[in-house]
């Protein structure tokens, strides 16, 4: 069969177009396969990083909360005593004179015990009057002296002998009592905090040994607050001011990582 030139050219042209389409299709398939592979790798990598993050988060949750205790027995270094007394008389001058006499007796009492004059200072005075059943007016002078000393042993002797004031004609009103305070808390805070922290570490290490792990660093810590209670009253805060024997206590809360 004979084919003219035009038909031959058309056939060659169609063959060329078909080849180009085939190559385009092949390239498209390659691009799709490459994109799919990259996407799969991305998903896999994302899953690995997410999984790794979960592991790290889980490790971060491995922690133990413990408390550490530190106690120290101390002796009060300040004693204060508010001495209240009153004098009543038919006239104001007599009441004032009696109150002045009582004040002199109180000062003499503390001077005999060896306290300096500046251990006692006026803390207030008040005057009142009333009418008795017979219609007579009576005047009352109330006097208050503030005693303050750092000589704790001598202060205890003053309390023990306070009935000598009655023998001198001075009747103290109710509520007058020696109060003992410890003012050196700031000096013992740092070593006590260190002691409480070491105690917390020991507790954490014991827990870690029992659970087959080890103690890491501190995640968080709370110092807590210091308590000053009576030493010989079961650690109770009630009545702590009435005794010079104190017990200082602090509890720290520490959160440790576990390895």
What does this structure look like?
- This protein is an alpha+beta fold.
- The protein has helices spanning 5-60, 92-112, 152-160, 163-167, 185-211, and strands spanning 63-75, 78-89, 120-131, 137-149, 178-181, 215-222, 227-230, 245-258.
- It has three domains: 1-61; 63-75 and 184-258, Protein of unknown function (DUF541), domain 1 (Translation Initiation Factor IF3); 78-180, Alpha-Beta Plaits, CATH 3.30.70.
- The protein has five helices and eight strands.
- Mean pLDDT is 81; it is low at 1-17 and 45-58.
Give a topology summary.
Elements: H1 5-60, E1 63-75, E2 78-89, H2 92-112, E3 120-131, E4 137-149, H3 152-160, H4 163-167, E5 178-181, H5 185-211, E6 215-222, E7 227-230, E8 245-258
Antiparallel strand pairs: 1-8, 2-4, 2-5, 3-4, 6-8, 7-8
What do the pLDDT scores average to? 81
CATH class of the largest domain: Alpha Beta
Strands, count: 8
Kindly identify the CATH topology of the largest domain.
Alpha-Beta Plaits
| Main sheet properties | 4 strands, antiparallel
Low-confidence stretches are 1-17, 45-58
Shape category: elongated
């Amino acid at each position: 069969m004979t084919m003219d030139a035009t038909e031959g050219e058309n056939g060659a042209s169609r063959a060329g177009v078909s080849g180009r389409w085939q190559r385009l299709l092949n390239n498209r398939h390659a691009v799709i396969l490459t994109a799919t592979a990259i996407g799969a790798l991305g998903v896999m990598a994302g899953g690995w990083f997410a999984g790794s993050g979960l592991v790290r988060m889980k490790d971060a949750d491995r922690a133990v909360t413990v408390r550490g205790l530190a106690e120290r027995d101390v002796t009060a270094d300040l004693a204060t005593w508010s001495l209240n007394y009153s004098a009543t008389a038919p006239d104001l001058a007599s009441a004032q004179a009696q109150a002045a006499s009582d004040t002199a007796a109180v000062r003499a009492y503390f001077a005999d015990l060896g306290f300096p004059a500046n251990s006692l200072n006026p803390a207030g005075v008040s005057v009142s009057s009333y009418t008795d059943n017979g219609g007579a007016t009576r005047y009352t002078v109330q006097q208050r002296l503030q005693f303050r000393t750092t000589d704790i042993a001598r202060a205890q002797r003053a309390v023990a002998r306070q009935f000598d004031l009655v023998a001198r004609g001075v009747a103290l009103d109710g509520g007058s009592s020696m109060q003992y305070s410890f003012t050196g808390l700031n000096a013992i805070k740092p070593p006590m905090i260190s002691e409480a922290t070491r105690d917390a570490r020991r507790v954490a290490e014991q827990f870690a040994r029992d659970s087959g792990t080890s103690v890491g660093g501190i995640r968080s810590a709370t110092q807590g607050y210091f308590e000053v209670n009576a030493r010989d009253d079961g650690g109770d805060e009630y009545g702590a001011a009435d005794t010079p024997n104190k017990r200082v206590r602090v509890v720290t809360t520490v959160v440790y990582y576990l390895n």
